[in-house]
Amino acid sequence: MAKILGVGGSPRKNGNSDILLSSVLSPLAEAGFHTQALYLRDLAFSGCTGCERCRTDKICTGLTDDLTPWYETIEQAVGLVLVSPCYHYNITSLMKAFIDRLYCYYDFTDDHPRGFSSRLAGRGKQAVVTVVGEQTDPRNLGYAREMMALPLEALGYNVVSSENVYGLFQPGKAAREPGVRDAAAEQGRRLLASLQEE
């Protein structure tokens, strides 16, 4: 059974980001995919330290922590869903640390500036990213969406949907706001359609 990994970058349990992550994953689970949610707040892990051991070991060996066992799931998953609230025009530090730990999948040339390729590329991997913000002006969400989408594209994912969700702050508001969960489920359906085309 194909796997879909959903990664939540919010420090707040059962908040709007969690509701949206669940809503994106729901149509994929209904279609028979094995969906799994990873809430980064539940892990004790560090961001990349730049030790470069992954250049020879082909996986992160410079750090051994709660994220380490998840590399197998990341490699196996055909779909990846990232959801983060916007913190100060950007993604949370949890989500940034997670994305930085995917650095281990790059192969680099020895010239400068270095060329690179990704060992996750060419495997039909698809992704969805969602940013949750309190504000309603897109400028106030800064570069959060790009901070998730661009690294995934560089890693070889096809980002089929990249959305900002506005006006959500109070915990659980996403469940009460008309259409919010439906829009998130539509992202899941776009991911499903893209995977079915592979």
Tell me briefly what this model is.
The chain is of the alpha/beta class and 198 residues long. The chain has seven helices and seven strands; from the N terminus they run βαβααβαβββαβαα. The radius of gyration is 16 Å and the shape is globular.
Outline the structure in words.
The chain has 198 residues and is of the alpha/beta class. The chain has a single domain, classed as 3-Layer(aba) Sandwich (Rossmann fold), CATH 3.40.50. 33% of the residues lie in helices and 20% in strands. The protein has seven helices and seven strands. Strands 2-1-3-6-7 form a five-stranded parallel β-sheet, with helices on both faces. A two-stranded antiparallel sheet has the order 4-5. Helix 1 packs across helix 7. The two termini are 15 Å apart. The mean pLDDT is 95.
Number of helices: 7
Q: What gyration radius follows from the Cα positions, in whole Å?
A: 16 Å
Class per helix and strand makeup:
alpha/beta
Shape: globular
Task: Look at the structure and give the mean pLDDT.
Answer: 95
- Assembly of the depicted chains: single chain
Task: Tell me the span between the first and last alpha carbons.
Answer: 15 Å
What sequence of helices (H) and strands (E) makes up the elements?
EHEHHEHEEEHEHH
Largest sheet: 5 strands, parallel
* Second-tier CATH architecture: 3-Layer(aba) Sandwich
Biggest sheet, strands in spatial order?
2-1-3-6-7
| Overall number of structural domains | 1
Helix content: 25-40%
Q: At the third CATH level, what is the topology name?
A: Rossmann fold
As a percent range, the share of strand residues is: 15-25%
Low-confidence stretches: none
How many strand elements? 7
What name goes with the CATH superfamily?
Flavodoxin domain
